[in-house]
């Protein structure tokens, strides 16, 4: 341990406890990362470079302060049934400390789903679906927004937010290009990105925080659905209407405009980009199977152990067989900046956990929130606080920590405090582009289609929606779930 940090750690009191000074120092590093990302354009640096620099600094500081675990990792072990705290078997592997810090499943889903969507798009399937949806809306931009908004929520509820954003965002770009309305792409992608986190509230299994908190509170799948669905419906409608107003996405004004739009879309040929009927139908079958497998991954034999990252990589690999001799072209199209950013961000958050930044938040919650008879202030502090913290860090460890705090305090499962954390942990992802993987994917799609969007620009554009969603969530919890 470095001499300076040894003194700081010693001031922490109990053995193994990190001192307040160290926690505060690492909290400042996290704040520095957020500020640097907000100034991304002024710094002329990619997100992956900024996050990578802070990951390097955090690792060096964490090593100097001796707060990181450098023991060998045991793999292949099994829990001892009589004592669930012990493992048997397995063997030690000397992994660099930053390897287990990374959530490899998230990276696998992004990488695999991006490959899959890119290859499938070559079949003309997404163009075919987009034109079908466009024809169903008769070329009305407002109806198109409603259609893709609802599709985003449904996909986010049964798949995962990242996959939903990649698929719906790709379809949206095609539809607007066909209609000659690419100037509205920013509004569509932003709204869809925000709706992924709203859709993630629909069921108990729609997001990991839901599973952690719902299980800890003893909320059943049906109860979760019944209690969350009214809010999801209201938040979806409110987000779509506010987005349509702010981005000027209006219904066609008169009969003449509607007639012209109907004639325009009637001239679209959904088969125009289908060059190989065989590959088209194979892609359609694989897309349906991909969605079905992702949606039921937690229940399928073998797949439930390999998880969704394996599913995404496997489907992407199968589709690549079509272009096996030029597969490197698809690798070049992968957004490596996005993957690098997430890897570095996970490392930063991992160090923050060991520096007890999250634990400090938990202690702050215990100081300001009354658990026995929570009032409006207590519910509001917990909801807004969990949302604020989720907007800049991973909401999974936050959900696990707050679930432990509420459970240890004996908070009953029907307390509004559980729902305050559930709503806050999910909706906080809409406050910043790094608050959730799906909002960052939405920003990446904007850049892919030459639509400028900075960190600060996203916060400014998303704030009215996020604030409205959090306000409605607070009122909903206080009135209907208390």
Can you give a write-up of this model?
Helix content is 69%, strand content 3%. By secondary structure, the protein is mainly α. The chain has a domain at 104-335. The strands form two sheets. It has a two-stranded antiparallel ribbon. A two-stranded antiparallel sheet has the order 2-3. A hairpin with a 2-residue loop joins strand 2 and strand 3 (83-88). The longest helix is centred in the middle third of the chain and has 26 residues, at 221-246. The radius of gyration is 23 Å and the shape is globular. The model is unreliable at 6-15 (pLDDT under 50).
List the helices and strands and how they pair.
Elements: H1 3-10, H2 20-38, H3 40-43, H4 47-64, E1 73-75, E2 78-80, E3 83-88, E4 91-93, H5 104-121, H6 125-136, H7 141-158, H8 161-179, H9 185-199, H10 208-217, H11 221-246, H12 255-266, H13 277-295, H14 303-320, H15 327-333, H16 336-354, H17 357-368, H18 376-390, H19 395-408, H20 416-427, H21 437-448, H22 455-480
Antiparallel strand pairs: 1-4, 2-3
Helix pairs in contact: 2-4, 2-16, 4-16, 5-8, 5-14, 6-8, 7-8, 7-9, 8-9, 8-21, 9-11, 9-21, 10-19, 10-20, 11-22, 13-14, 17-19, 18-20, 18-22, 19-20, 20-22
């Amino acid at each position: 341990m470095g001499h300076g940090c040894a003194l700081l750690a010693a001031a922490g009191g109990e053995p193994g406890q990190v001192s307040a000074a160290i926690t505060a120092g690492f909290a400042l590093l996290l704040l520095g990362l957020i500020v640097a990302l907000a100034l991304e354009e002024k710094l002329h640096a990619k997100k992956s470079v900024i996050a990578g620099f802070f990951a390097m600094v955090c690792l060096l500081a964490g090593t100097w302060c001796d707060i990181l675990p450098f023991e060998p990792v045991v793999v292949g072990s099994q829990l001892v049934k009589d004592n669930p705290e012990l493992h048997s078997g397995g063997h030690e592997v000397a992994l660099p400390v930053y390897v287990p810090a990374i959530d490899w499943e998230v990276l696998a889903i992004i990488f695999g789903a991006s490959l899959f969507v890119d290859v499938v798009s070559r079949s003309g399937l997404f163009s075919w679906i987009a034109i079908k949806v466009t024809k169903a809306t008769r070329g009305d931009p407002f109806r198109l927004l409603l259609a893709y908004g609802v599709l985003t929520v449904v996909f986010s509820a049964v798949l995962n937010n990242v996959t939903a954003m990649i698929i719906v965002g790709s379809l949206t770009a095609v539809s607007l290009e066909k209609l000659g309305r690419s100037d509205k792409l920013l509004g569509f992608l932003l709204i869809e990105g925000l709706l992924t986190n709203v859709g993630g509230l629909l069921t108990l299994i729609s997001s990991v925080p839901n599973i952690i908190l719902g299980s800890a509170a003893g909320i059943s799948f049906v109860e979760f659905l019944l209690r969350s669905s009214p809010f999801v419906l209201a938040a979806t409608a409110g987000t779509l209407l506010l987005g349509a107003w702010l981005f000027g996405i209006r219904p066609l004004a008169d009969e003449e405009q509607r007639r012209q739009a109907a004639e325009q879309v009637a001239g679209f040929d959904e088969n125009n980009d289908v060059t190989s009927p065989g590959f088209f139908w194979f892609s359609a079958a694989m897309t349906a199977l991909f969605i079905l497998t992702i949606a039921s991954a937690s229940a399928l034999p073998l797949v439930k152990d390999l998880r969704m990252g394996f599913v995404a990589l496997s489907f992407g690999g199968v589709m690549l067989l079509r272009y096996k001799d030029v597969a490197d072209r698809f690798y070049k199209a992968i957004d490596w900046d996005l993957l690098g950013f997430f890897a570095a961000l996970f490392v930063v958050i991992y160090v923050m956990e060991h520096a007890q930044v999250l634990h400090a938040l938990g202690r702050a919650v215990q100081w300001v929130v009354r658990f026995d008879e929570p009032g409006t202030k207590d519910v509001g502090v917990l909801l807004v606080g969990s949302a604020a913290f989720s907007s800049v860090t991973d909401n999974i460890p936050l959900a696990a920590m707050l679930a432990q705090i509420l459970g240890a305090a004996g908070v009953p499962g029907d307390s509004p405090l559980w729902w305050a954390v559930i709503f806050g942990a999910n909706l906080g992802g809409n406050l910043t582009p790094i608050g959730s993987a799906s909002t960052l994917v939405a920003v990446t799609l904007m850049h892919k289609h030459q639509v400028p969007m900075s960190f600060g620009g996203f916060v400014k554009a998303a704030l009215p929606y996020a604030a409205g969603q959090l306000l409605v969530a607070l009122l909903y919890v206080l009135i209907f779930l208390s």
